[in-house]
Amino acid sequence: MVGDILELAARYRDEGADELVFYDITASPEGRSVDRRWIHRVAEVLDIPFCVAGGIRSIRDAEEVLNFGADKVSINTPALTEPALITELARRFGTQCVVVGIDSREEDGNWCVYQFTGDPDKTRAAGLRTEDWIIEAQRRGAGEIVLNCMNQDGVRRGYDLAQLKVMRVAATVPLIASGGAGTPEHFRDVFVQAGVDGALAASVFHSGAINIRTLKTYLRGEGIEVRP
Amino acid sequence: MSTASREVVIVDGGGANIASLNLALQRLGYTGQLSSDPATIRAASHVILPGVGAARAAMERLQKAGLVNLIPELKQPVLGICLGLQLLFESSEEDDVTCLGVLPGRVRRFAPAPERPIPHMGWNQITRRRDSALLDGVPDDSYFYFVHSYAADVSDDTIATADYGRPFTAVAGRDNFYAAQFHPERSGPLGARILENFLDRC
Predict the structure, then answer these.
(1) Nearest chain B Cα distance for residue A103, angstroms
(2) CA nearest to B184 within chain A
């Protein structure tokens, strides 16, 4: 399995990805400790920034991940259950290391935060408006927000532009859009219309539906500044 | 060039995340030795001053290790990276702290603006102001990976600039001291080229 991860990492590196995020789905739900040595293998291969998400609940977890060579840690549910963790991580490692991932979905005309999204049986509303949580997470030391728009996730119908536009105003730190990418036009739209700092996608890249290099050439043609 | 002739020491500022830097050196065939020992640093062929985090904490750690007076006196090539660049200047607005003073000038915070999130985090282009061995083979307007909230103004020591609401020093150099505000170890093949230039040509 690590072999597959390394192969993917090298492929995306060579295609010109600007950053990689690894969701360690084995780490999260039950709170068990996991073998994170794979991070070091990935770090050996990558010469671009990469972030590890999943199962990071303490300074010690984060320290291990960063010592293995990750550049950032992304926390989601643990930030909701223990918001002080954001501050502690920022103090210890700097805000640039601390990404707060937010799963958000529209509910009665409001965008609301969801937690425990790693496990469909446990997923539930966190009782927070997404905008408020972005503002609080920043105040506590988040250096970047990855906003996963759950209504769009996995359906490839485009990023949630309406939501991202609103959250762009709330976010004074870099805002990364996640959920919904299906075509190169979706990437163009999220940069042009929502003004996000980055666009994250998984399935369209994994399946080969979109090649990153081809995508970047397209975006450049559309007048969007991207690294070659 | 034989790697045996290179004793690369990475200054251990404690807390800084240097794993990625060491791996980048390894990909070039070098091994960086992490140390805060003055004698080891003095004996190095090349010294790298990395740094992630806050300026005051970093200066306090250098102070504690007895390196504040030593680093400015080093005669071998020294490369500051990110906060390491900022520490080479006289002072920083961050925590209003006195730094190493190798380069004149004060490091200032970026002014926040709606279209410019702070920290400045991501890939940005650099523009060469003058030639330097550090940038050999690096085309103008190349992209590098930046993560910072503070930056040094453009000065006589600026080798290349970048722009984020205001022009700032992306690459600096004076005598045997070199510095990059971006992370060469996370900036793809061109970042690797800069590290290689530092070790082979500076």
Answers:
(1) 21
(2) A47
Into which CATH architecture does domain A2-221 fall? Answer: Alpha-Beta Barrel (3.20)
Half-sphere exposure of B99 (CA within 13 A, CB side): 27
Whether residue A44 and residue B23 make contact (CB cut-off 8 A), yes or no, is: yes
Domain coordinates in residue numbering, chain B: 3-201
d(CA B94, CA B83): 11
Characterize B56-70 residue by residue with b for buried, 16 or more Cβ atoms within 10 angstroms of its Cβ, and e for exposed.
ebbbbbbeebebbeb
Q: What is the CB-side half-sphere exposure of residue A31 using CA atoms within 13 A?
A: 5
The span from the CA of B85 to the CA of B26, in Å, is 22
In this structure, CATH architecture of domain B3-201: 3-Layer(aba) Sandwich (3.40)
With CB atoms and an 8 Å threshold, state whether A173 touches B119: yes
Element (H, E) at B106: strand B103-109
Residues B94 and B195: beta-carbon distance below 8 Å: no
Q: Does B192 touch chain A (CB under 8 A)?
A: yes
Q: Quick check: B196 contacting A, CB < 8 Å? A: no
Domain boundaries, chain A: 2-221
Residues of chain A that touch chain B, judged by Cβ-Cβ distance less than 8 Å: 13, 18, 40, 43-44, 47-49, 66-69, 71, 92-97, 143-144, 169, 171-175, 195, 197-198, 227-228
pLDDT tens-digit profile, chain B (202 residues)? 444 578 999 998 765 568 889 999 999 999 999 999 999 999 999 999 997 678 888 899 999 999 999 999 999 999 999 999 999 999 999 989 999 999 999 999 999 888 899 999 999 999 999 999 999 999 999 999 999 999 999 999 999 999 999 999 999 999 999 999 999 999 999 999 999 999 999 9
Chain A hits for B53, CB-CB cut-off 8 Å, are 93-94
**Interface predicted TM-score (ipTM) of this complex, two decimals:** 0.89
